[in-house]
Specification:
This protein is mainly alpha-helical. The protein has 2 domains: about 1-50; about 55-80. Helix content is about 60%, strand content about 5%. The protein contains 1 helix and 2 strands, in the order H-E-E. The chain has one helix spanning about 1-50; strands spanning about 55, 60. A two-stranded antiparallel ribbon has the order 1-2. Strand 1 (about 55) and strand 2 (about 60) form a beta hairpin. Keywords: Membrane, Transmembrane, Transmembrane helix.
């Protein structure tokens, strides 16, 4: 009788410990992923800002992937004179 109760108690303790450990690992992975995502987003934003070029017409900044100025609609490259 006592052996059966002890086995049930040990089983419950092991289940709780297992659940806490797995839950902690999942939370840790989620937090690490969020941290890396934030750093990656920040770095790429800085790289895109560094790659921006001035508009050939109005002098506004055109982002790296854009072909036209968001202010005046002019082309990315200066007009050939």
């Amino acid at each position: 009788m006592a052996l059966g109760m002890m086995a049930i108690f040990v089983g419950i303790v092991c289940a709780v410990v297992f659940t806490v450990v797995i839950g902690g690992m999942l939370v840790h992975l989620l937090a690490t992923g969020a941290l890396f995502w934030t750093i990656n987003r920040h770095v790429h934003r800085r790289l895109n800002e560094a790659a921006a070029k001035p508009c050939g017409f109005c002098g506004g900044m055109i982002a790296a992937g854009e072909l036209q100025c968001p202010q005046c609609g002019g082309p990315r490259e200066a007009p050939a004179d």
